Every structure is written in structure tokens, then in C-alpha cells.
Records
---
Amino acid sequence: MRISFVIPAYNEQDYIVDCLDAIVSQKQGLSPEAAAGVEIIVVNNASTDRTADVVKAFAERHPGSGITLVDEKEKGIVRARRAGLLVAKGELIANVDADTRITRGWISRVLREFARDPKLVALSGPFIYYDAPARVRFFTRLFYFIGFGFYLINRFVFRIGSMLQGGNFVVRRDAIEKIGGYDTSLSFYGEDTDVARRLNRIGHVKFTFRLPALSSGRRLAKEGGLTTGLRYAINYAWITLFKKPFTRDYIDIRLQNNKSVVYAPMNRAKEWVIGAVIVVLVVAVFAAAAWIVYNVAVTGTVDIFR
């Protein structure tokens, strides 16, 4: 089974090499047959820096790496994904961001998962923000666990959607074509949820913690981890329920010095408010659960409101 990596790259000269190196390193560890089926497509998405030159230089240093550089003049991550899809030859399309590094065994796991389940149309996993503070990584993991709960409810109970992590998801080519491809009217937020929602109608869309990828936390550093998490959660719900994003605009975090990721949210007060609300909600939930358990233990019945 062939796999095509599609990597949108807008002004990513400082990150793209690590992304490509992670893929090429794993490709070299595959069997000759499997390695031959891996191609890498970098979509130079209206970059104004040296992204294209850096990719070309990397390809020259790694002959046989299967790297193709494609230009997409109209800026937008969804348009870049579509441009890569149009030239991809693989049965599987791996959508990876330019600041993402796939983890050890990522390619092998993807191939096994799709070979094991013919009805699997999309597979995804979480991000691990390697350059974010420990507290941010903690809340990110909490965010994923909460999101995973909603994913299970949406997929198996209500059957109205699923969950994919943009920048770390793989789709079957014939499946994405069957649903009409990527929706280019979506500029940023909700593009992955939209794909998950539509693919869920025709096959299995799976999210697993066993397919993590490393990514830069530069957006969280700029906007704030809690603010970003809340915004993603709201847009996930809006796309799932109303088929459109709640947030239209987004901050171009690439305008900062790419390699100097310093956690300095634009609005710290907002971060504190969101954090306080989350703590209050968590405490309230645990308090309610403890009260219910106590009453059940005392009264011997679950009818705690009598």
C-alpha cells in the first residue's frame, strides 16, 4: 500500500528540514517494497522566505527520498492540502504539517492499521508539543482526553461525526475523493473536523493515542494554551453540529521568529480566567460525583433527589 505525505509549507524554512528528516529516516528503516511506496510532497504555499530553496537542497542531499515540490500560489492550508492531493500517487494520503515530526514507527503503524481494517477511511493521533512548557503539555493532554470522550460519543452513540487532528492524520485517497475532497471555503479552524464528519458517513474514522506526532507549540505560545484549546473545542462543536466554523480569522504565527518559541501569550488575563473556569468546573464535577457516591452509600439507592 503506497502512502503520500502532503506537507503544506508557508514560510517554513526553519522547520521543514526536521519534518522531512523524520519521514526520510523512517522510510530508510522500512522494507525495500514499503519504502518504494512512500512519496513526500511539499506544497510551497505562497511562501516569501527560502522554504522552496531549503526543500530543494534537502532533496539534493537525499537522492531517492521521493520528494516533490509543488507550488500553490493561493495561501491557505486547505488549498495546499488539495494541491498535494491532486499530484499524489498513493492510496493513503498522510496530511502532516511542516512543523510536525512523525514519531518512531509512525509509518509502520499507519500501514498496519489500514491493512487490518478495509473499512478504515481515516486515522489520526494527538500532538505532543515538544517546545511548550510542562504545564501547557499537561493541559494539552487533558484537552485530548476530553476531546477523546466527545469523539467516542459522536462516533459510536450519535454517529454525527468523528475526530481528526489536523497535521497528523491519514485518509484513503478514494474516500476523500468520494466525499468531494477538501472544503476550500474553510480557511483554518475546523478543516480537520469537517473531513472527519463527512468521512464518518462512508467508513471508519479512528483517533488513537498510539499515533502521536511531535509538533511545535508556537501557536500556543503566541495565543495561549488554554485560549487555543477553547477555540479549537468551540470550532469542533460548531463544525460537527452546524457544518461551519465558529471562528473565521486566525493569527499567522509564522510572523514571529520561528525557532525562538517563548511562551508569552498575548492576553495572560484571558488565560487566567479560562484556567480558573476550568478548575471550578473540574472541582464541581468531582464534588458532585463525591456527593452522589456518599448519598448512595448512606441511603442505599441511586434516587438521591427523593
---
Amino acid sequence: MSDPTGAKPPVDAEWDDEEYFASDFSRRQTLDMLAGGALAGLLGSLVGGTPAQAADDDVVRIGYLPITDATALLVAHGMGYFEEEGLKAPKPTLIRGWSPLVEGFVSGKFNLVHFLKPIPVWMRYNNKIPVKIMAWAHTNGSGLVVGRHTSITDFSQLAGKQVAVPFWYSMHNIVLQYALRASGVTPVIKPQGAKLAANECNLQVMPPPEMPPALAAKKIDAYIVAEPFNALGELKAGARMLRFTGDIWKNHPCCVICMHEEAVAKKSEWTQKVMNAVVRAQIYASSHKEEVAEMMSRDGKGYLPAPAAVVKRAMTTYDDPSYAETGANKHADEWQNGRIDFQPWPYPSATKLIVKAMSETVVGGDTTFLKALDPEFVAKDLVDYKHVKSALDKYPDWKKDPSVNPGDPFNREEVLKL
């Protein structure tokens, strides 16, 4: 977000990186179109309303956005896990917006991607795109930061403020609005500059790369987003962490691993090999966060444009005493989670809660398709449990994750607690 005068916001020049801070039209366009439902027309014109068949060969074609949500895919590639499964996997393709990633997936350019959890819900039930969620890509991994120009110390003080979210149908928006309502604040969507009631917090969609400079320029008061943009805000834009989302919804999913339903059905052996690599990558990332942060950064293998210092903070800095003092992670000791974690099993209980929450969350655009969704049906229909479960059986170390109950690893109770 640039200043009308053309001057750049006061962000540390050390990482004033065009790869992250430049205006990304395609991403902004996607967020607007997804929120308004207009991307349905785009997909319809692209492939007649149904996805083109993915390539018939067995090459693993990965598309991803440059965020830590893509860790499982990037580590599986970087560590050679796909090759060890006997699969060909060219270097993953970095995509700068959800729109081209969705388009690339639907057209068959990509057969393995990560999407924000609500996107496949929208694709499958609003646009009849047979996408399948294969596993969770990660848990936690997001937070809400406030600007240094504010004195905000809790969610109740977001009344009268401007807050940016990356997408209306996102875990970020869902968790934010839960916290606002629990704090007596009403989330609204009004034009910027419109008068707000004393108890209203105004929300706007903003591409993550624009959030840190917008906060530094005092154009917004806070933003909630995936990493590494919170870490970037802390290091380069004077942001203060108000609360980690994983400290509100215990070990919540955010992005999920997705594949084409047709490929999953017709190429079960190939699909299993892909999922073996992805699950193995998550288990490795869980216990080697600093190492994989270095590997993914632009100082390592360059999957992410961010420098190692930013990615490492985004993946490892959670027990900083200042966070406990300010209440950014009130439940860290009790819940034993991290800033970002990697647990692949797609708990049905979370899918059900997300579908319910999507219909209760204030968003822009048409929400008609949500009214007919039954959470129980979506949890059974949208997610493929077979292949991820087989991979987890092959790599049982996933049960060592503190979030997993070894006595009943495939079920859990969802916990939201402000």
C-alpha cells in the first residue's frame, strides 16, 4: 500500500523487498473476487465449470504461495522425500496470489497445492470443483499484531479501529471475529473513513504483503495474518504481537493440502506415495523448525523470498518472556503448542466447526451457498482420510506431537478460549 505522495512507508530498508511489498494485483483481485463470488465466472470460463483433468503422468506438480503455510510441501521437496518415494517432483512453482493458484490447480497445471481451509469449501460447494482436502498443511501459524502508534492491549480496545484480514473466508477472520464478539466488540465492514459506533471494529481485506507497510504508515491499526508477515511486522514495521491465533483456538488448522478428486480415485498408489512424503515432511518440520526455516528462506534454498532471520522468528519464537507478559500466548504452558506446528491429521471436529463458523462470520459478498451446507456432510465429503491415515500409520512418530492424544489420536475436542 503506497503513500499518495509516492513515498514508501517507514519500513526498515534491510528488508524493503519488492517481492513482498510490491502491490500484487492478482492477489488483491483474487481476494475481491473470492469474497464476492465472482471467481466462479472466471473458473467457468476457464474450464467450463469443471476442472480440467490433471496431467496423466506421475509428475508431482506443486504450486504454493510464499508463506510458511507451504512448509510441508517445500520440505518434502527440499529433503528429497518425493524422490525417495519414486516420484518425479520438479521445483515447486511460487505463485503470488490465490487466484492464479486456484486457476493453475483447476487447469491441471498443479496437482498438489495448499489452500486456505475455506477455499476448497467454496470451490467444491459453490463452484462444483471436485477438490479434495488430503491433510492439514499446518496448525497455528498466525497472529494479530497492532501498530506502535496504538496503545491496544486487548481485543476490547479494537473498538473504533481499522483491522486488516487477508481474506473474508479465512481462519484469520473466523478467529478474529470470535475474539471480538467475546470482548464485546461488533465486527463490521464499512467504507474506510465511515463513522463507527463506539463498539464497532471495521474490517478490510488486504493482501498480506501490504500489511506491514500499511501498519507502519498508520493506515491500519492492526492486522491478522499467516507467517512470516507477523514476524516481519515485529522486526521491520514496529508491530507488537497482541495474540497468537493458536492461543485462542487450540492447534487450529489454517492451510490444507489439496489434490484433484479424480487423481485420488484413479491413482491411489501414486496418491499414497505423495502423502507419505508430505506426512514425513511434517514430522521432520515439527522437530527441526529452525533448520527448515533456514532451508526455505532466501538464504537457504530460496523457496521463500524472506531472509532466514524472519522465517526463523516466524517458526520458532513463541516462548519470548514478553509474550507471556503481554498475554500474547496466555495458554502456552497449558496447551504446549508452538508459534507454528505441523500435525497432518484432518480432524473432522475442526472441519465441522469451521463450516459452522463460516456461516456466522461477517464477510463481504454473497454467502448463499453456505446456508445449505451441513457440517457433518462436509466433513465426510470434502476430506479424504484414507491416504493420510495410511501415511500416519507408516510414520507413527506423529503421535509424539503434544497436540495428539496417543490413546485416541484420530479424534479431539475443539477448544476456543480467549
